Amino acid sequence: MDVTVSLPGSKSITNRALVLAALADGPSVVRRALRSRDTVLMAAAMTRLGSAVDTSGEDWTVTPGAFGSDTDVDCGLAGTVMRFVPPAAGLSTGRVSFDGDPHMRSRPVGEVLGALRALGVAVDDGGRGALPFVVRGTGRVRGGTVVLDASSSSQFVSALLLSGARYDEGVDVRHDGKPVPSLPHIEMTVAMLREHGVQVDDGDADRWSVAPGPIRPVDHLVEPDLSNAAPFLALAAVSGGTVTVRDWPASTTQPGDALREILTLMGCAVELVTGPGGGLRVTGTGELRGIDHDLHDVGELTPAVAALCALASSPSHLRGIAHIRGHETDRLAALATELGALGADVTEHPDGLSLRPARLHGGVFHTYADHRMAHAGVIVGAAVDGVLVEDVATTSKTFPDFDVAWSRLLTPGDAP
């Protein structure tokens, strides 16, 4: 196998770009925007608040408008919508109601809602700290200093930073708790704010300060979603073949870039190829080694990495990832259950997983409506006969037509 894959754009970049564009002083274009359920929900949320988002083409034009109507926001299964939109809704003069898919009612958002209250925004969540809830804005937010515990999600910090420049006093976010997970995502938020001309001070640990001021309109070119590369690059690892992911950036804030280091540690040959036709090239070397690795900053890669570890010839320990219990599903419990059901020797810990070499067999791999669990399932299925991945269509959350691309990749003579 020697194939080249093109990936759709990053959900994380697309949704941040949509929020910033809706809050900017003039129209912006989000170029090569990811079109997936999460991003369509974000575009719809910004439109319902009062901006105009034209999603008819590959490049999405965002024209800011007044936030002034009573409206409802559907969060679906998108944590970014549930957490990033309420701080913007505080700038509305309308009553903005939030709800989503049933599972979203168990995902944490209380720290964001509590922070908004501390900054002067009226929020009614019935004391649940979860969906459904209502934000009642007055057209302005006082802003200022707020202390929260972001140890369960870096999105709590990003949510406040994205809208903070529009607050009267800006926002000074201070984290008090266990280490913040997925710091690259906060670094992504800070970098994008600075592109929009916003002053951000992140010089102190666990503190991020956004100065009040205008948000300059900026056109963003969305990078490929590097975390979505995980199953494709993993295929090279388990098959001994070569997979190249086109347009891999030489420098990026995306957590998925950690795949370069992880796959190298597991025994793959990894090369960043520049120039025309370039990208990240991964070749399996016939040996898949286990790893002892802290995935705290790149927790979204855990399902794919755990699947590879279940197939490795030596033990693995994945740690620092207690926070992924609050993702689309309790990913640690789900991985232990599903990999174990296929014969993997896996032990679930409070903050991670241990996996030892074992002979895996076929069976149904359940996905729990979680796109990253589907990634884990297809990786195992590429190496083990008889694995049926339930509801692979859940990957549409961040990768529309993933199932088509994956099927073509596994068909001799075909390309994705």
Describe the model.
The protein is α/β, with parallel strands linked by helices. It folds into 2 domains: 11-221, UDP-n-acetylglucosamine1-carboxyvinyl-transferase, Chain, CATH 3.65.10.10; 226-409, UDP-n-acetylglucosamine1-carboxyvinyl-transferase, Chain. It is 31% helix and 21% strand. The protein has 12 helices and 22 strands. Strands 1-14-16-15 form a 4-stranded mixed β-sheet, with helices on one face. The protein is globular. 53% of the residues are buried. Mean pLDDT is 95; it is low at 412-416.
SSE layout and pairing:
Layout lengths: L1 E4 L5 H13 L4 E4 L5 H13 L2 E3 L5 E4 L7 E4 L4 H11 L5 E5 L10 H9 L3 E3 L8 E4 L7 E5 L6 H10 L6 E5 L7 H13 L4 E2 L5 E4 L9 E2 L8 H10 L2 E5 L12 H7 L3 E5 L5 E5 L8 E3 L7 H9 L5 E4 L11 H11 L3 E5 L2 E5 L6 E3 L5 H13 L3 E3 L12 H8 L7
Parallel strand pairs: 1-14, 2-13, 5-6, 9-10, 17-18, 21-22
Antiparallel strand pairs: 2-4, 3-4, 6-8, 7-8, 10-12, 11-12, 14-16, 15-16, 18-20, 19-20
Helix pairs in contact: 1-2, 1-3, 1-6, 2-3, 3-5, 4-5, 5-6, 7-11, 9-10, 9-11
Main-sheet strand order equals 1-14-16-15
- For the termini, the CA-CA separation is 13 Å
Give me the CATH architecture of the largest domain, please.
Answer: Alpha-beta prism
Instruction: Identify the CATH homologous superfamily of the largest domain.
Output: Enolpyruvate transferase domain
Compute the number of structural domains. 2
Mean pLDDT: 95
CATH topology of the largest domain: UDP-n-acetylglucosamine1-carboxyvinyl-transferase, Chain
Global structural class: alpha/beta
Question: According to CATH, what is the class of the largest domain?
Answer: Alpha Beta
Largest β sheet strand count, sense and barrel closure: 4 strands, mixed
Number of distinct helices? 12
Strand content: 15-25%
Q: What is Rg?
A: 21 Å
The helicity comes to 25-40%
- Poorly predicted ranges (pLDDT <50, ≥5 residues)? 412-416
* Overall outline: globular
Number of strands: 22
